[in-house]
Amino acid sequence: MTQKLIGACVLAQSGGPTAVINASAYGVIKTAMESEEITRVFGAAHGITGILNDMLYDLDKEDPEELKFLMNTPSSELGSCRYKLEGEKDLARILEIFKKYDIRYFFYNGGNDSMDTCLKVSEYMMESGYECRVIGVPKTIDNDLVGTDHCPGYGSAAKYIATSFAEVYKDAIVYNTGAITVLEVMGRNAGWLVGASALAGLSNAAPDLIYLPEVPFNLDDFLDKVEAIYKEKNNCVVAVSEGIKYSDGTFVSEAKPSTTDGFGHEQLGGLAATLAAVVGHRTGAKVRGIELSLLQRCGAHLASQVDIDEAYLAGKCAVESAIAGENGKMVALNRVSNNGEYGCEIIFQPLTVSANLEKTVPLDWINSDGTNVTQDFIDYVLPLIQGENTRVTVNGLPRFANLKKIKAEA
Amino acid sequence: MTQKLIGACVLAQSGGPTAVINASAYGVIKTAMESEEITRVFGAAHGITGILNDMLYDLDKEDPEELKFLMNTPSSELGSCRYKLEGEKDLARILEIFKKYDIRYFFYNGGNDSMDTCLKVSEYMMESGYECRVIGVPKTIDNDLVGTDHCPGYGSAAKYIATSFAEVYKDAIVYNTGAITVLEVMGRNAGWLVGASALAGLSNAAPDLIYLPEVPFNLDDFLDKVEAIYKEKNNCVVAVSEGIKYSDGTFVSEAKPSTTDGFGHEQLGGLAATLAAVVGHRTGAKVRGIELSLLQRCGAHLASQVDIDEAYLAGKCAVESAIAGENGKMVALNRVSNNGEYGCEIIFQPLTVSANLEKTVPLDWINSDGTNVTQDFIDYVLPLIQGENTRVTVNGLPRFANLKKIKAEA
User: Fold this and answer.
1) What is the DSSP letter of A60?
2) Which of B174, B273, B395 sits opposite A382 (nearest CB)?
3) Best residue in A78, A233, A263, A268 to probe B by mutation, most B CBs within 10 Å?
4) Of A108, A316, B309, B339, which one has the greatest count of Cβ atoms within 10 A?
5) Any idea what the Cα angle at residue B279 is, between residues B274 and B280, rounded to 5°?
6) In A, which residues are within 8 Å of B267 by CB distance?
7) Is B270 within 8 Å of chain A by CB?
8) Which residues of B touch A171 (CB under 8 A)?
9) pLDDT, tens digit, for every residue of A77-134?
10) pLDDT tens digit sequence for B91-111
């Protein structure tokens, strides 16, 4: 039997925010506060940099009722960072801070890079003979983490994207004068987010074309297809991933200007505006480019309850498993069938499982001409966007958690 | 007593869509179908052009249960247009179609221009001795119609804007490396929409600066203020109206390029991207421009129940009043106090009330340095965003009305 480990814990949040990363935080905080083994609960300000800078919040001083609102507060309430550990010096500093506060549990809520940080910290603590259990809690809207069926944060972003596409589709086709509308969705190398736009088809408002980064982009083919649909239907709605690339691997968003194809200027406005301009140049149609931008990753009001619940569960199980003796692992979600219905169970993976890998959309979930996803993709994502969240509103506006964020004393 | 007028009615939708224009449509359709006087209910395809082109839908052939979903279907389900009547020829054609279908009631759901169309149609029918009652039903997210306290469509757009600003604010401040975020909101000449971003303050997530089109824009002053806030807080979130203008009246969005201030290229990406680039040039900060674009006017999932109810009521009262003998009027909303609580009653205004006028934000509802709205503004808009709508979702996605849209026969 694993020996009981008594001491404090610290939670940190890293990387790009999601609509539900704070639900994972609440899962960690609440479970830690209720445990006998964990003596104090700290939150690091701005991820691992909060530990390096000795800037921890004393979460035990927060009102427990206020902490509950983390379940529906988007973005990383403790602050985030994009910091890569700089070797021995940083690790020694982390050990120093852990000793200062008697931190015996470290929970890092982030993506790929955060799992790498977890691994380094975990190994260093073991080498140093300092007993500390380290668990990574995954989050990313991009859904590109290997070792987990899907990732907390993805379902809510997918629901936001599908709903927004359905609504914009209704707007984009409203005039008899016709229009071509290009919507840009996040996802640098994986098409999980842009593929979710296909779900708008269940509201009879699917985009006509969907371009994923997994398929090399051909501008001429794109223009031909858009023009053909526009001529037939008088309207065309296109979904593009920010990460679409030409066959030589260069991002379309970074394409060199040319005076002949409408790429007349370098654009600050992003890919959607650029492609809309090019397609307007070709067709003469009224065009509009729309970038979902930050809205898609912080849209907590449209978070899926399934995603919120799973995010909470990931945080809760991280703490429970660490107390039970788990160390150096990443929480992962495993899809199971409950009498034919979607179910999800927590499993644990080595922290190395996702290192330097990105899970992209299987090519056989993309149609043959690379302009849509298949039913397999729909079947995969649909269970993840279920459930309207039970968020609290006050005066018709979101009620976010208002934490005191009191600096911890050792 | 007014004589009973027996005959068909036609409803048409015009101008830019809103999240609740179809709730007004349902108010018209349901009330007309239940009336004894109205024999048939038609919907014109794409506004007045559907009448000119003899393209009417026979709404009596729709499933009444399906029509109910119009209450939560964004955009103009019958299609819209931006067509200005071309004098006598068009009016004569409208009379011809009205006679063909025995149309005795005409309901036009639109903004300023639509009220002008209503007036012309109304006057022409009277001159021609053809008895037909004409009522305008207002809609616009811009809230710039004169003669009504506020306009159906505005409250829902305001709620979408306030919620989205609150969420994006949480995301925009997440990194300790700092950021400046510029969000662009619709409103060519009136600041009602951009001012609604101030409501995010009730979620403790207000933008730091708000620029309305009512106040001349000064780029140097803007840069000074953004830089000062960024230096103090490490973050700055700015709301700008698409319609901000320099003191000479030129739109900032159409400003001529210059190589010295960062306006180095003409931008397709819009005002937010341009201002973000300029402010990044000045401060060296990480910047992001976000345009709420069509999302803000079709975000039915965030429609306010108050707005939905008022939109429905406007349509319902239009029909009831026409049956009772009203003609050549615009439905308007009058704010009343119900024991100190917000209330709203329907009144009728001459169709000329809003002609060639735009209702802008009173200057004393804008703070002295032109970078925010006052409590009077908040008090005005807050009642209009109340109530989470009771929309139906299926599979986690919006359930829109699916009309058959069968072409009418005379």
Assistant:
1) G
2) B395
3) A268
4) A108
5) 95
6) 265, 267-269
7) yes
8) 17, 74-75, 294, 297-298
9) 999 998 989 889 999 999 999 999 999 999 999 998 899 999 999 999 999 999 999 9
10) 999 999 999 999 999 999 999
